[in-house]
Prior knowledge:
Blueprint: H1 5-35, E1 41-48, E2 70-72, E3 81-86, E4 92-99, E5 107-111, H2 113-118, E6 126-135, E7 146-153, H3 156-167, E8 173-178, E9 181-189, H4 192-204, E10 210-213
Parallel strand pairs: 1-5, 2-4
Antiparallel strand pairs: 1-6, 2-5, 3-4, 3-6, 7-9, 7-10, 8-9
Amino acid sequence: MRLSKQERTHWLLLILLLPSLLYSLSCATGRAAREGKVGFTERGLASWYGPGFHGRATASGETYDMYDHTAAHQTLPLGTVVEVRNRDNGKRTTVRINDRGPFVRGRIIDLSRSAAKDLEMLGPGTAPVELRVLQTAELAPHPGGYWLQVAAFQDKSHAKDLRRTLSSSQPKAQVQSVGGWHRVLVGPFKNRKKARRAEQQLRQLGYNPVLKTGA
Length: 215
């Protein structure tokens, strides 16, 4: 079968482009495999979103609460917990990815208002940041009520030590082991107000807990 000139041109272009397409696909696949793992880092601009989205549904199905420590990311698995560091001032915060975005070139994460306040970037609106994955998405929130995650360890003895340290001021502290990780949780709390009160107590002790709502 003879190919027309146009068909030969199409096949030639495909042959020439195939190596670069395969390379791009390989890079994207490799990045996706790394992104969900503990220790993955990424640098870029952070922004924040607040009143205009407060109360709306997020990509995870949760209701967006700008006073929670959550964030939107384009590709990280929903439920991933990351630490975000403001590269200008060194301020840090911990957030859980529960939404998709931002969709502006150069921006890598869209923070809740509370998280942006931690980084002292409410006024400027954006800041250069580095994010680091602390916890994979497989560690879903503990069922029922409101929970505060204080830390997660691969060594269970460290989790137990922290629980004992917290037990005097936080009798609801406990250790939950999932997927090779041991989380120190405080809860459950029946309502957000009680959870927030405990969160403030923990922050005064120097911890940076993440609020989680049960399924």
